[in-house]
Design goal:
Number of helices: 10
Radius of gyration: 31 Å
Distance between the termini: 104 Å
Shape: globular
Helix content: over 70%
C-alpha cells in the first residue's frame, strides 16, 4: 500500500538534498581567493606596471643608464667613488622614474588586458625569473670587457683614430635646437 507520509518525507528529503547541493555549488570555493578579495580586477595600466615590476625593468633601465658614465665620464675602475656617485646622479635625474610612463604607454598600446595578464603570469614563473636573473648576471659578467671596449672607443675617438664622416661633422657644428 502507498504510504503518503513516507513518500512526503522522502520527497522533502530529496528536495532539501538538491537545494543543499545547489546552494553549496553556488558558494565560492574556500580554497580559492574571492574575486572581491584576492583577485582584484586590475586596470590595463596596473597590469602593465606589474609586468614591468615583475621582470625588473626599472633596475635594468638604471643599470643600462649607468653605462653612460662608462662611456662619457670614466670607467668604474677609474675613480670608483666618482663613478658610483655619478651613476646615482644619473639614476635620480634621468632614471626610471622619468621613463616609466613611456614604458607603460607602450605596453598599454601594444598588448591587450588579456595579453598583459598572460605576460604577468609568465613573469611570475620560476623559469622566467631564472632567465631574467641570468640576463642580469650575464650583463654584469660582461661589464669588464664592455668597459674596456667603450674606453678604447672613446680614447680612439678623442685621439682622432676614429674619423667622423663629413656629413656627421657638419651636423655636429650646427647649434642645438
Amino acid at each position: 500500500m502507498f504510504n503518503l507520509q513516507s513518500w512526503r518525507s522522502k520527497w522533502l528529503l530529496g528536495v532539501c538534498t538538491i537545494l543543499a547541493a545547489c546552494t553549496a555549488n553556488s558558494q565560492p570555493d574556500p580554497s580559492k581567493p574571492s574575486p572581491a578579495i584576492g583577485n582584484v580586477v586590475q586596470s590595463k595600466q596596473e597590469l602593465a606596471r606589474a609586468v614591468l615590476s615583475e621582470i625588473g625593468i626599472a633596475q635594468q633601465y638604471d643599470r643600462y643608464l649607468g653605462n653612460i658614465v662608462d662611456i662619457t665620464v670614466a670607467p668604474a675602475n677609474y675613480k670608483p667613488k666618482f663613478h658610483t656617485w655619478m651613476q646615482g646622479v644619473l639614476a635620480r635625474e634621468a632614471g626610471w622614474k622619468h621613463a616609466e610612463s613611456k614604458y607603460l604607454t607602450r605596453l598599454e598600446a601594444t598588448f591587450s588586458e588579456a595579453e598583459l595578464q598572460e605576460l604577468l603570469t609568465l613573469a611570475k614563473q620560476p623559469l622566467m625569473k631564472k632567465l631574467m636573473q641570468a640576463e642580469v648576471q650575464a650583463y654584469g659578467d660582461a661589464a669588464p670587457e664592455r668597459r674596456k671596449r667603450l674606453d678604447k672607443v672613446w680614447n680612439d675617438y678623442n685621439s682622432g683614430r676614429i674619423q667622423m664622416p663629413p656629413e656627421i661633422l657638419k651636423e655636429t657644428e650646427q647649434p642645438r635646437r
